[in-house]
Amino acid sequence: MTKVLIVGSGASGVHFALTLLQKGYQVIMLDVGRERPDPVNPEDSFNDLKNNLSDPVNYFLGENYEAVVYPGSTGEYYGFPPNKQYIFDTPEQFEWKATGFAPLFSFARGGLAETWTGGVYPLNAEELRDFPFDYSELTHYYNEISKRIGISGTIDDLARFYPVHDYLLDPLRLDNQSSILLEAYQRHRNYLNTELNCYLGRSRVATLTGEREGRKACSYCGRCLWGCPSGAFYTPSITLRECFSFSNFKYYPNIYANYFKTNRHGRLESIVVESTGMKKHEEIQADTFVLAAGTLSSSKIMLDSIHRENGGNIKLTGLMDNRQILIPFINLNLVGHQYDAESYQYHQLAMGIVGEDTGKYYHALITTLKTALVHPIVQNIPLDLRTALNIFRNVRAGLGVVNLNFDDHRRETNYVTLETDKNTGETRLLINYLPPENESAVLKRTVKTVKKVLRKLGCIVPPFMMHLRPMGASVHYAGTIPMSEHPAPLTTSKYGQSHDYENLYFADGSTFPALPAKNLTFALMANAARIADRQF
Ligand SMILES: Cc1cc2nc3c(=O)[nH]c(=O)nc-3n(C[C@H](O)[C@H](O)[C@H](O)COP(=O)(O)OP(=O)(O)OC[C@H]3O[C@@H](n4cnc5c(N)ncnc54)[C@H](O)[C@@H]3O)c2cc1C
Ligand code: SF4
């Protein structure tokens, strides 16, 4: 039986692996694979943790206060909690430098989605128009991934944008503010739909509302940001555990993959790797190789392989990411009310906005504030600390943020390449990104629409608090080795098969030829399962 070697245990890699394992293939997975610490006091709610932990400050802010977001440091409204720092811990071998881009990398078991916010939005036929396959080719795999990970949601006004797939679980219990916003939407629905081309509804999230396969239903404990203790909230390490139950699966953690070696027929023969922390190289052979190391890391392995083979240093163009704007708001109906800490923490509502140009869709997620690290918000209020805290306590129950997402397209100006250290010969990933020229007009117009929507829903947007996130911050990277119907160097077939090396496949976002405004990970997982099922 063919031996398939996969690099990476993120959302793309694990679903590729599971599909192959179910078909009886022998699968080897190489991964740096930083491990998640065990959850503390798994039965405790967010508030229980504050009371029951011997050192809650250490847990919530870190031993060296590493989760504290200092004034002026990043402009973000949240920081990552200390127990999730392992997700962004990079091995010393991996070096990068970026211009116009603020990338995040993960070398964790499960990858970046160990800290995602669980939004799962299927790309529809219109959004797949630049892909070399039809929407119908993905539908089976949306169903399959939905069955594997568990997705809650409902069929409402947003179904016009989000195709309905099988195995949709009942939606989560709404928190108070989300429920008030949804009621307001129903009252003004006609105006919002017809005048503002805007639709509101329930989010689709990878969170269980019923128990299944050893995972509990969401208990509304409010600990989502610190890592769900019960497995109700899906992360790829859950699927990795499922892979472990197959005898035809071998997982090698603490391995950093460098580059491929080819034989004289131009086929990949082996991958050169090293144990993290050690500088000793070794080679691992396989019949077929699959890169699922995340778009940027897979691109680096491809660039390094070409560099080692012929000394050349090429550019992989077309890097994409979703521009995001954070629009904080205050729901005036909730000023002076109590907030409920025993709630699901991430977004429960979503918004679809039809743009002026044909086929344009902008995607927004509405997160109401419940439990979170609140100091980044307080310090962003443009007043002295005492006044800011007083105001914050009064408005807390009515606070929320709209995360507005824009689509992106492959452009020559946006690329990744290598820089070589003259002394050591080691390479570093260089990332270069320039936003499109007409971006600011589109952003302004769409933000204006969102502000009108919020006003209609009874909310105000405080001045000076909107935040244009840097490119790279959405962490939806794609496009460097695109799928193409026409075989050309540095592209792949519609099944992610490299046009440069016949026995190499790409299973992550590298192959996406376009990036619609919706969060891409559901499509990543479905596409990985599609390739593994149809091509193997
Ligand atoms: C805060 C946050 C919130 C997000 N929220 C959402 C959301 O709500 N919805 C959504 O759709 N998406 C969301 N995302 C994006 C989502 O997490 C990514 O799209 C997804 O994780 C990408 O998966 P991947 O498998 O392609 O790559 P990655 O997650 O990057 O996984 C890469 C894997 O490869 C391994 N690896 C990398 N390089 C090497 C190497 N050289 N050698 C060995 N192993 C290697 C790593 O250890 C890791 O296991 C969010 C991301 C973040 C950070
Ligand atoms: S998803 Fe969030 S609220 Fe639900 S059980 Fe997990 S941590 Fe608690």
Q: Could you walk me through the main structural features you see in this protein, from its secondary elements to its overall organization?
A:
- The protein is an alpha/beta fold and 536 residues long.
- Helices cover 24% and strands 20% of the residues.
- The chain contains 11 helices and 23 strands.
- Strands 6, 13, 14, 15, 16, 20 and 21 form a 7-stranded antiparallel β-sheet that branches. The protein has a 5-stranded parallel β-sheet with strand order 7-2-1-11-22, with helices on one face. A 4-stranded mixed β-sheet has the order 3-19-18-12, with helices on one face.
- α1 packs parallel to α6 and α1 runs parallel beside α11.
- It starts with a strand and ends with a helix.
- The model has no long low-confidence stretch (mean pLDDT 93).
- The chain binds flavin-adenine dinucleotide and iron/sulfur cluster (SF4).
- Flavin-adenine dinucleotide is lined by residues 7-13, 30-33, 104, 106-108, 111-113, 115-119, 255-257, 292-294, 297, 301, 475-476, 508-509, 519-522, 524.
- Flavin-adenine dinucleotide (FAD) is lined by residues 7-13, 30-33, 104, 106-108, 111-113, 115-119, 255-257, 292-294, 297, 301, 475-476, 508-509, 519-522, 524.
